[in-house]
Each structure stands twice: as structure tokens, then as C-alpha cells.
Amino acid sequence: MGLPSGMNTQSVLVIYQDGMVLRIPMAATNLVPPRPPSENKLTFAAITELVSLAEQWEVLCLSTPTKSGHDSTPVNKPKSPKRSA
């Protein structure tokens, strides 16, 4: 395995069976250390703002909304006559 001079470091050349040369992205190998997991932490101010927004949303979005318009009238179909056997 090697990296010819002048070649970018985004891939490596690997000699495979019967002299076959493969160019493999570095990200697909174990040659690059894994990236540390990103740690996103909310500040106290951000959490306070989030709670405030949630409380405002609760007022705007009622769980039992008021009715608008009129009820639709049911469509009554005439009953078909029963047949005797």
C-alpha cells in the first residue's frame, strides 16, 4: 500500500492480487482515526428560551379547538323494500 508523490491524501493505492492496484478513499479504510462524536450542549439560556417558546405555542395551539362553520346535514337514503323469500 502506498501513496505516490503528488497524489492527494484523500485516497490510497492498494496492491491487490496479481498486481492489481486499487485506489480506495481514505474514509473507507481504518487508516483515518474516527471523528469524535459531536457534542452539542444547550446552555441554560437556550433551554429557558425553548421552554418560553413552548409555553407560547401551547397558548396558540389549543388542544380543544373551537368549532367553525355548521354541522353538515346527514344524507338520508330511502330504504329499499325487503324481499320475501
Give an overview in words.
The protein is an alpha+beta fold. It has a domain of about 25 residues. It contains one helix and two strands. The protein has a two-stranded antiparallel sheet with strand order 1-2. Strand 1 and strand 2 form a beta hairpin. The longest helix has 17 residues.
Spell out the key features of this protein.
85 residues, alpha+beta, two-stranded antiparallel ribbon, 1 helix
Strand content: 5-15%
Give the beta-strand count: 2
Q: How widely separated are the two ends? A: 90 Å
Q: Which shape, going by the Cα principal axes?
A: flat
Summarize this, please?
The protein has a domain at 6-31.
List the helices and strands and how they pair.
Blueprint: E1 11-15, E2 21-25, H1 44-60
Antiparallel strand pairs: 1-2
